[in-house]
Every structure is written in structure tokens, then in C-alpha cells.
Design brief:
This protein is 44% helix and 8% strand. By secondary structure, it is α/β, with parallel strands linked by helices. Strands 1-2-3-7-6 form a five-stranded parallel β-sheet, sandwiched between helices. Its cofactor is thiamine diphosphate.
Length: 381
């Protein structure tokens, strides 16, 4: 008797009862990123939405520039700029209702600010002052996530819990292309699809996971194609087209709210500046590549559309710039104030009830601080 003749042996052909659980056709993304600006579809766009997107993009660009300058002045420990990606950041914040939740990564401070969080509070973590600088419940914004993709399972858990409770809530989770290589990404998408959780995953594909290009991370046709393997729709969108990102994310949020389950959106964009202020991007990409993407700048694309429709004049542009400068001046002034910090705050809000290890660490730090203070007082006698 051969191995294949044995009872229960593996056979290369599945039994007749096997069938696909989901028709893959409707889940597949388009072959090209979805665009609106510069097409006929843009002609029917709401003028107020276009103006709002423009004002937020100008504000966001100035915010990125000011935060980057603060790192050079020693007022921020690190800043991962989203310059060039502002369309994704702003659209993600604007498509959500007040009751919805945003789950950002470390690069998404602009989305956090656009959601309504105080600009200084949004930078507190990156300054090194506190675990997070804002109350997540006030604006329904989870803390900035510095570990890659760990916020994604949290978003799924919240969305699933909301659905079980009957709450009309959608979670939108943001992640970079590098985060799609993490196990948390797989676990989050798998659970979201199985549970049909009301969550939207926005992947900002900016070309590099620090210095690693996308081609060295995945051989998939696109990151949006990964959605099919989990049983959810994948959408591919031009991440520098603010109107297109707003439309695709808006559709995905409505789909989730109506019980349609999760969607994976890949926004094709570009990180114009370095990964952070500690990165030398010239070691892995050339100036010509960066300049090519500068010509596809999200602000320029939107301003071209606004100008063509007579919706952008000098007064409107000046008002947007003035608002951005006012924000930057306030951010600069407040970040130049030295905060009063208590090292013992390290242990606040870590657990609802202290663990033995936390109590031991607190006592050790208290003893060290008391000894340091006693030594300083003794030196002044």
C-alpha cells in the first residue's frame, strides 16, 4: 500500500464540499490609484469642501515645518514629518464623525491636530514629557503609537466592542507601508474581517520603511491587494489627491457604519522629508526622485483645481497663510516654555491598579530623588 492509498492520506485536490467563502472579484482594488482632481469627477465637488481641504493642507504644511524647526532648536526630541502626505492626514480626520475614533501612528500628528487636539498636546510624546499629551476620550483619538502597527488590533477591538454594544461608531486606523510587514497588521485585518468590525485601515504608502523600499517588503501587486486574502475590500487611491482620499475614506467609513465590515485603503503618497530628524535620506534615495514627487504636491494639485474653478483668489490664499502663521507662532511660543515635570508621573496611568513591579520601581525612584535632594541641600549648608 502506498502512502496515498492509506486512509486519511493527503490528496492534492480538495474534497467536493470545498468552495470559496467570499467572491474575490468585488474585493479587488483597481489597477490604478483612484483620482478626482484633474478629472471630470472634480467638477461636481462641493466648493466648501474644497476650500476646507485647502485651508487644512496649508495649515498642515506650516505645522510640519514648524515642528521640524523645533527639533533643530532642541525643543522636540524627534519629529517624523508628514510633509507631502498632508492630504492623507487631513482627509482621515475630516471623514470621521465626533463619535468615531482615530488610531494614529507616530507620523500622524497632523491628523491628530486636524481632529481637534491641541497642537502642543499632540507633540508632548515626541518632546519626551509624558506618555501622551491629551485625553484620548475628549476627541476620540488614541495615543500616538510609536511601535509599528500595534494600534491596529486596538482599533479592531474598539470597533468590535462598539458594534456589540450597539454603538454607531467607526474606527479609522492609520499605518505606514512598513507597518504592513508586522504581525499586528495581519492579526488586526484577520480579526476585523472575521468579526466584520466597523473599522477602516488607511495605509500611507510613502515609498520607504525608513530606508527600506516597498519592493523589498512585499511582492504583492499593491498593498491594497492584501485585503482580498482577509476577505475585505481593498481600495487604491492617489494619496496626494485630497479630494480622492476624502471620497474613498468617506465611502469606507459609511460602508463600515452600515454594517458592511472593514476596508483596507492604500494611499500612494511620498515622504518628501527624511524619516525623522535623525535620518539621512540621501543615503537611500536621490534628489531627482524627491523633486519628481514635489511636482505632485497635494497643495499644488488642489490649488490648481480651485484656481480653475474660480474658488481661489489672493484673499483666500492670504487668509489660509495667515491662519497657518498664527498657529505656528502660538506653537513656537508655547513650546519654548519649559514645562514643570514630576519624574514620579512616570508611574501614573500605567495600570488601573499598580503591579508589584511598578510599586517597587516607584519606591526605587523616590529613594533616588530623595537622596539627590538631600545631597543638594547638604551642599548648600
Amino acid at each position: 500500500m502506498t502512502v496515498m492509498e492509506q486512509r486519511g492520506a493527503y490528496r492534492p485536490t480538495p474534497p467536493p464540499a470545498w468552495q470559496p467563502r467570499t467572491d474575490p472579484g468585488p474585493l479587488l482594488p483597481d489597477t490604478e490609484p483612484y483620482r478626482v482632481l484633474g478629472t471630470e469627477a472634480a467638477h461636481g465637488a462641493d466648493p466648501e469642501l474644497l476650500r476646507r481641504l485647502h485651508a487644512q493642507l496649508v495649515l498642515g504644511r506650516r505645522y510640519n515645518a514648524q515642528a521640524t524647526a523645533l527639533t533643530k532648536q532642541g525643543r522636540l526630541a524627534v519629529y517624523p514629518s508628514s510633509t507631502g502626505q498632508e492630504a492623507c492626514e487631513v482627509a482621515a480626520a475630516l471623514v470621521l464623525q465626533d463619535r468615531d475614533w482615530l488610531f494614529p501612528s507616530y507620523r500622524d500628528t497632523l491628523a491628530v491636530v486636524a481632529r481637534g487636539v491641541d497642537p502642543v498636546a499632540a507633540l508632548t510624546l515626541l518632546r519626551g514629557d509624558w506618555h501622551t499629551g491629551y485625553d484620548p476620550y475628549e476627541h476620540r483619538v488614541a495615543p500616538l503609537s510609536t511601535p509599528l502597527a500595534t494600534q491596529l488590533p486596538h482599533a479592531v477591538g474598539l470597533a468590535h466592542a462598539a458594534r456589540l454594544k450597539g454603538d454607531d461608531v467607526v474606527a479609522l486606523a492609520m499605518v505606514g507601508d512598513g507597518g504592513t510587514s508586522e504581525g499586528d497588521f495581519h492579526e488586526a485585518l484577520n480579526f476585523a474581517a472575521v468579526w466584520q468590525a466597523p473599522v477602516v485601515f488607511l495605509v500611507q504608502n510613502n515609498g520607504f520603511a525608513i530606508s527600506v523600499p516597498l519592493a523589498k517588503q512585499t511582492a504583492a501587486p499593491s498593498l491594497a491587494h492584501k485585503a482580498v486574502g482577509y476577505g475585505m475590500p481593498g481600495r487604491l487611491v492617489d494619496g496626494n489627491d485630497a479630494l480622492a482620499v476624502h471620497k474613498v475614506l468617506g465611502d469606507a467609513v459609511r460602508h463600515a457604519r452600515e454594517g458592511g465590515g472593514p476596508t483596507l485603503v492604500e494611499a500612494v503618497t511620498y515622504r518628501v522629508e527624511a524619516h525623522t530628524n535623525a535620518d539621512d535620506a540621501t543615503r537611500y534615495r536621490g534628489d531627482a526622485e524627491v523633486e519628481t514627487w514635489r511636482a505632485h504636491d497635494p497643495i499644488l494639485l488642489l490649488e490648481h483645481e480651485l484656481t480653475a474653478r474660480g474658488l481661489l483668489d489672493e484673499d483666500t490664499q492670504r487668509a489660509a497663510r495667515d491662519a497657518a502663521e498664527t498657529m505656528a507662532a502660538d506653537l513656537r511660543a508655547r513650546m519654548n516654555e519649559d514645562p514643570v515635570l514630576d519624574p514620579m508621573d512616570l508611574f501614573a496611568h500605567v495600570y488601573a491598579e499598580d503591579t508589584p513591579q511598578l510599586r517597587e520601581q516607584r519606591a526605587q525612584l523616590r529613594a533616588e530623588l530623595d537622596a539627590e535632594r538631600d545631597g543638594q541641600e547638604g551642599g548648600h549648608r
